[in-house]
Structure formats: structure tokens, C-alpha cells
Amino acid sequence: MAKYGQADQRCLLWSNILDEIVVFGVKYYPPDPTKVGNELTKYMLCLQLRKDIEENKIECSFGVQILLASYCLQSELGEYQMTEDYQKKAINYVLMDNPSMEYLATIREAHKMLNQLTNTEADVHFLDIVRKLPRYSFEFFEGEVIDGLAVTFGVGCIGIVIYLDSLRMFRFTWLKIVKLSYRGLHFIVKFGQKGKYTTQTYRMKNQRQAKSLWKRSVDNHVFFRLTVNLPSRKGILNTLKTDQSLLSFKQTSYSQDMNRGITNNTSADTDLRRAVLKVTQVPVDVFVEEISSHDNFGHSLVRKCL
After folding, report:
1. What angle do CA 138, 295, 72 make, to 5 degrees?
2. Which of 24, 78, 122, 252 is the most buried (most CB within 10 A)?
3. Predicted TM-score (pTM) of this structure
């Protein structure tokens, strides 16, 4: 953007009308995007996830990337048809910058096997695979380096995850988190159930990272704990009352499918912004969670293409 004009008549002029002014993105990723009812919303999720894969925010293996790219082609171009401009169109949906000819040929063979899939079905297959990838829905923040190993904190739809040198070590689910706070370089989590609570504190790379992690965590914590009551309309006379009630929220019990919110401890909301003065260090159980394998159709397709 450039400024020009007299001192009393300043104007703003875009240096290039093709430059992006506003960029939209997904803020809250659903735990299971395949269950989203609106087809347009599903497609928007696909667009965001394609961008995340291209920018390496979501990592996947070579075989999985080929499978995902083939679903993108099926969704955007329909059934495979060898035309003169096929290669030119396909290069926009291969989830990679400057792909090799071998890579494009492998994706083309995978695309041939997806005949009879509709655009919507291709999007559902794409979403079902991406949601099982380890870094789906996560935004990452840098922690303190310990013994030469980088500590990273991820905030996503399932909770807060801690990585030690790219290896996932701990997880705090939104179900168990009671209070989130930060003080200086320290990020503090209070968690537990049924009156048995534990507090953990972690040192971040700098105060800015600590505050950003805290703000993002509180934002997701509130979002995934709340649900909206949508009363049924019984007549025209109830329209005003119904519209006003759409703005009311209430806390409900946490659903196992993680599509609804949690907690009966309403006092936790008012205490989220208070710093914790006394921190008790208690080790958290280490867990290893293996990502679910993809469907047999996807495995057989990759084996045939490679």
C-alpha cells in the first residue's frame, strides 16, 4: 500500500490490485471433519488442509501425500480424462511446489483408479485421511531447549500436546484441563478430575511465546467446552423469543466424540486469567498413541501406484 497526496489530503492506494487484502482461514478444526453436515463447509476445510500440507504444517509420508493429491484431483477435475491441458490443471492440486515428473506420473495413475467417486465423496476420503495425521488441527509454539532437544507445544482440537524433539510425549485433553495461566516465561496448566488436581509449569522460549500459547489455549478451551441451545420454532409468535435464545450458551457434559464441550466447574472460567503463584511439579504419565491406519482401499491404492 502506498500513500500519496498533500499533507491535508492524504489518500491510500493499493500498489497492486491483485495483492491479497483479506485472507480467510480455519480457526477451529473439528475433531472429525467428515461429520460436518454442510458440503460447502467440508470443501472449505479441504482447501485449508491442502494449504496446511503444502506449507508443511501437517506432515505426511510420500505415499499418503500421493493418495491425498489424487483425491484433490478427483474433487476438482472429476474423473480422469487425458486431455492436452490435464497436466497444466493438475499441477495446481498436487500438494507440492515444483513437483517432479515422476511424482506427477504417480499421482496421475492414482487418479485413474478413483473413477466413479463424486466430488463430495473424494472430499470425505481426503478429510478422513488428514484427520488421522499426527499434526492435524495443531498450532505450535516454541518452548525452552532442554539438553539440546527442542520442546514444542501444540494446541488443537483434542487439547494441548507437548513434543520433545518432534516426538509426542504428553497430552492434556480439554476434558481434564481446569485452569490455564502464564507468568513471565512460564506457561501453567492445572488439570484433573473429581477434586484431584495437579499443576504443571513449563518454561517457554520467551514471554511472547508464553502469552501466545496461553491465549490460544484459552480460546480453544472455551470453544470446545461450550455448546449452543437451539430451541425448536413452534410458531411465528415465538420467533422473537427464539432468536434471543440463540445467543445463550450453557455448559454441558463432555461428549466422548469430542464434538461437544465439557466441565461442570464454572469457577474455572473466571480464574483463567489469574496467575498461579504456587506451582507443584508432578510428573505426567507418558503415553504413546498410534495414529489409526488408513482404510484398506487407500493402502491398496498406494501399493498399486508406487
Report:
1. 65
2. 122
3. 0.68
**Three cell numbers, residue 270:** 473466571
Per DSSP, what are the bridge partners of residue 154? 140, 161
The strand order across the sheet containing 151-155 reads 139-142, 151-155, 159-164, 167-173
| Separation CA 218–CA 155 (nearest Å) | 10
The average pLDDT across 64-84 equals 92
The SS3 of residue 230 is coil
Tell me the domains of the chain and their CATH numbers. Answer: 33-133+295-305 (1.20.80.10), 139-270 (2.30.29.30)
**One-letter amino acid for residue 271 of the chain:** D
User: pLDDT digit string (tens) for 175-219?
Assistant: 999 999 999 999 999 999 888 999 999 999 999 999 999 999 999
Whether residue 213 contacts residue 140, with contact meaning beta carbons closer than 8 Å, is answered with no
Residue 59 near residue 49, CB atoms below 8 Å: no
Per-residue confidence band for 304, with pLDDT thresholds at 50, 70 and 90: very low
Q: How far apart are CA 63 and CA 216, in angstroms?
A: 33
